[in-house]
Task: structure prediction
Amino acid sequence: MIGGIFTLRRSAVNINMVFAFAAGALIGISFFDLLPESISISMNTGIGVSLLMSVVVVAFLVFHTLDQCILCLHTQKEGRLEHAPQFSGIIKASGLSLHSFLDGVAIGTAFYVGLELGLVVAFAVVFHDFSDGLNTVTVMLRSGSTQRTAFSWLVLDSVTPLLGAAVTLLAAIPLWIIGVVLAFFAGEFIYLGATDLLPEAHRHENSLKLLFATVLGILVIFATTQALRL
Result:
């Protein structure tokens, strides 16, 4: 919630800077958080790394195909093209909310292992979910949605981790499935950051400030993941 509210309230901040930072954060989360965790799970469950990489590519292509199909469909309908970006933003925000749901599943699963691990995982999720809230609002604003609509999706994104944790009380999710799903979301986040948010950040201007914001987003995630491994 705090990450998204920060984006909504800081109207004086250049929104392109927010897009650039969010792109870096999404790319950083993919390579420093989701993929390493997915590969670690694969080593314990016998899933081939090549399969996980294939899932990453499939996810990238799935969201790219969805975007293109949405744009093509609405291009054929005269006077309705302006609705395509909003629908695309909803799809992306849904993916982020689903990822937050899995964050909650990770918290619940970690507490099954032990109190200490559960607390560490919970702290990690809460910390990087600041970026998730920021990214949820950013992709909705990027798609042309109103601040009210973006806030509604932010509320959903903040509730889904609680629902994910609650689900682990009802049924255990096989570890190998979690590994594959993490790889899928890594592919989605790479797509969101590299081919959606980053080009949008540079659409109206190119500056060292935007480059710095992107690098900063990556470094923040890198520093966070390294600190949590100490």
